[in-house]
Design a protein that fits this description.
By secondary structure, the protein is α/β, with parallel strands linked by helices. 36% of the residues lie in helices and 16% in strands. It contains 18 helices and 13 strands. It has an eight-stranded mixed β-sheet with strand order 1-2-4-3-5-6-7-8, sandwiched between helices. Strands 10-9-11-12-13 form a five-stranded parallel β-sheet, with helices on both faces. A hairpin with a 7-residue loop joins β1 and β2. α12 crosses α18.
């Protein structure tokens, strides 16, 4: 009996080892001070995870908080990349730059390594969890992960409620600057729609990094923003269990994490990208869990998995650059461009009708043109009327749709439907004719849907969001 058990265990071990088709190491710096250890699976699913070990920003705990995860991930078809980053030593851009470079390499090599570039996550442990959360909240769009896994993460940079040495080692002398402490306390940096979905794993009896002032704060910030976030807190385990089999809840943790990974919806690499630009109506103001239930999310369901719809709406924003909250000064505007969309749906103008904003109404047309020509530089060139036009082999992108504002049933916040009808919509129509764009006349099509509005008379409710998604989906499909 023992002989057969031994043979069985040996076969299991051989099977686990066989799940990794290739292992190799890449230098991330010319001197090899930072490296990335790569584990490619035999049967790739397209998913990839960049691992960030902990160690208080003073050492790298890259065993159970790094390499040890490779077998389990590769068995699931997940490509895994452990970044052995440089320690800050007074310069936090070193570890940040190393991890960002690792993510960029994975996405740039996606075709060769059989990775879906839209399904690249990050997984950090302790101080590495802080670094992973920094990349998730601060990095540019092209190196921001698609999902985030945080094991007992340091989140706060306030050493009074966090791990003292992680704070001091990461910030250095800037630990004395309250603004920088706040900026890199990543629960303060979570952005609605823009911060990737997260899974947080902790033990309740963690004595090194207090869960209540760190991981739970990140979860709260994500949930308050309406962003997708899961949290698993186990009764015991203290700090630093990682992927170690000695952790009492190891098997349960792997099941929980595996289920979370399996449940994630992943856009196809060739999906048509749709960027929804707008104000609070696009953002989903008044709709709980708006990233899942505002009109862009419902538009995604309506269009299907051949499309990839992203919500770049920001509440209170204006088209006017002299408005109180100009959209084109937002991180969401930069992200929308970096998204490299095939289709852009622009729904701005409601907040521009407020008195403090419409005093600059003479500039609305120029500001709208600025947005359009930034998205489509080819439209900034004058159209030649004479001579033969060279036939394009590829249609210019993105295709831009201008949405008229939905009716303002009340003058909440000073929003004025008369200005929308007589000032803003005529300019949108003129610009659409001038640049050959299509108008989606939400103001007319939504006119009979007063029962689908919130009490403020400005924002659609859940049924109204569905109505918007239906109207826009029908236009895009045509």
């Amino acid at each position: 009996m023992k002989k057969w058990m031994t043979i069985g265990l040996l076969l299991v071990a051989m099977t686990m080892q066989a799940q990794t088709a290739r292992k190799f190491t890449l230098d991330l710096t010319d001197d090899g001070a930072a490296q990335m250890v790569c584990f490619l699976p035999e049967n790739p699913s397209g998913k990839a995870i960049v691992g960030v070990p902990g160690g208080g920003y003073s050492v790298l705990s890259n065993g159970h908080e790094g390499m040890m995860a490779s077998d389990w991930l590769n068995q699931r078809g997940i490509a895994y990349f452990v970044v052995n980053y440089r320690l800050p030593e007074g310069d936090r851009t070193k570890p940040m730059g190393d991890v960002e470079k690792g993510i960029r390499i994975v996405r740039d090599s996606a075709q060769v390594w059989k990775v879906n570039p839209h399904d690249v996550g990050i997984m950090g442990f302790s101080a590495g969890g802080h670094l992973a959360s920094v990349i998730s909240t601060h990095a540019d769009f092209d190196v921001r992960p698609d999902f985030t896994i945080l094991f007992y993460p340091v989140i706060s940079m306030d050493e009074r409620v966090s791990h003292v040495w992680s704070c001091r080692n990461f910030l250095g002398e800037d630990q004395k600057d309250p603004a920088i402490v706040r900026d890199f306390s990543t629960d303060k940096a979570v952005r609605r729609h823009l911060t990737p979905p997260a899974c947080i794993i902790m033990a309740s009896d963690d004595r090194l990094v207090p869960p209540v002032t760190n991981g739970i704060q990140y979860y709260s910030a994500m949930r308050n923003a309406g962003n997708e976030c899961a949290m698993f807190i186990y009764p015991t385990g203290d700090h630093g269990f990682g992927f170690g089999p000695w952790f009492k809840y190891h098997d349960q943790m792997l099941t929980d994490l595996g289920n979370w990974l399996d449940a994630r919806q992943t856009p196809q690499p060739e999906a048509i990208r749709v960027a929804c630009i707008g104000n609070s109506i696009t953002d989903g103001h008044g709709i709980d869990m708006a990233p899942a239930y505002a009109y862009p999310a419902l538009l995604q369901k309506k269009l299907g998995n051949g499309y990839w719809v992203k919500n770049f709406g920001v509440s209170a924003r204006t088209m006017l650059n002299k408005g109180d909250f100009p959209y084109m000064k937002e991180m969401a505007w930069q992200d929308a461009q970096a998204f490299n969309p095939d289709i852009v749906v622009i729904k701005l103008g409601t907040n521009d009708s407020k008195p403090q904003n419409w005093q600059y109404g003479a500039e609305f047309k120029a500001d709208l043109e600025q947005m359009i020509t930034t998205l489509r530089p080819d439209l900034a060139q004058p159209v030649k009327k004479k001579g033969k036009k060279k036939k394009d082999t590829v249609a210019p992108k993105p295709q831009i749709f201008l949405c008229t504002p939905i009716p303002a049933l009340k003058t909440s916040w000073g929003i004025n439907d008369s200005i929308i009808v007589n000032g803003i919509i005529p300019i949108q129509q003129e610009v659409a004719r001038q640049y050959g764009l299509q108008i989606i006349d939400l103001h007319t099509l939504f006119a009979g849907d007063a029962d689908k509005m919130l009490n403020d008379g400005i924002h659609p409710d859940g049924k109204g969001a569905q109505r918007m998604a239906d109207i826009i989906a029908d236009t895009l499909k045509q």
